[in-house]
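Q&A log
Question type: sequence-to-structure
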Amino acid sequence: MITWYIDKIKDTVWPDGVLVTSWPIRSTWEQKAAKSEALRKIQIYIPDLLGGMVGRGNARRGARKVFDALQDQARNETLALELLLVGLDAMFPDKDWERIRRGSEGGR
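Response status: OK
Response body:
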């Protein structure tokens, strides 16, 4: 399963072995439609999953907060990199990923 995810990421970022340097530009309408569809799906699935534990109303409000939090590109990049480091640490526990992460922050 991990290899499937790695292949999906590789095919998205390096289609045909070439690094993607720019993504197709979406119109404002396309961006709003995608955002509305994502919010709709989150508001359907999260309350269904968590409704029994925290209540449907709380799950719905929590889903909206999660959605709003994921609208910041800089935070999304940080989250993605942190999740990558967690995954790498789980797969290769002998490496000092925290030291590597701290070393990469010096270049920012």
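Response note: The chain has two domains: 1-71, 73-108.
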